[in-house]
User: Fold this.
Amino acid sequence: MKKIINSIIVMMTITALFLTGCGSVSTGSDSALSVLTSTTFLADITRNIAGDRVNVDSLLPAGTDPHAYQPSPQDMAKIEKSRLIIINGAGYEQFLLSLIAGAEKNVIEASAGLSPREDAEQGVDPHMWLDPNLVISYVENIRKALAEYDPAGEAVYQSNADVYVAQLQELDGWIKMQVEQVPADKRLLVTNHEAFGYFADRYSFEVVGSVVPSFSSNAAPSAQQMAGLIDAIKKLKAPAIFLDTADNNTLAEQIADETGIKVIDDLHLESLTEGAPAATYIDMMKYNVSRIVEALK
Ligand SMILES: [Zn+2]
Assistant:
């Protein structure tokens, strides 16, 4: 009898060990620290602060335009599993709002505290990340959120953030130097949608106009708006239209036919790329600035 009980205890112990072993493998991501970001550039910025302590995933894959994104059922599952979600905010993640509404999630807006550019008709401009100085505020917001989520990592997050902020300041200096190659009267931007306001403010460009006169790519221009843009391009002799690689370039090509303007349609404004040329936020900015300077100088 004793023998049987002993062997039952041994069996139970083995089973328990086995279950624990399995559990720690299959549910490892639940116990490990993990953060979900809405987009790829936010994932990269967050990884720079989180280092190895936190697993950082982007909800949207590389190459996806958040303005026009339609969430999938898998997205809902990812959101459900996440305790901390980092979004750009300022109305950027329209696709996410219905998914996170009602869910008791810790959702952090990276752009919180910044004063957005606003327009009575179009609302709020969310494209703050195209000015690296404003991304320094993103870093501070994300650092605080990580330190609250994982207090034991606070010192690591602070020191990683300090290193990254220095890199962002260096990027800002690099952009200023690049832009100096473009004569002041040629610092003209024509874009697909109005993504360049903060960038233009920081680096002294004039935004001549946009094919889609909206803070979102998910809109369409009227015939009158198109005609107005064509007039402005002719009048100011704007050298180039700049599009994101994900944008439809049909209207830009039509404008080019009428005005002779160059179409640069391979910028990366809303997403990183897998590998070069825009594998990180800093690479993305350097790539875009190089394309802009080449086209205007
Ligand atoms: Zn945009």
Summary: The chain has eleven helices and ten strands. The pocket of zinc ion is lined by residues 67, 127, 193, 195, 217, 270 (CB under 6 Å). Strands lie at 34-37, 55-58, 84-87, 106-109, 118-119, 123-124, 188-193, 206-212, 240-244, 262-267.
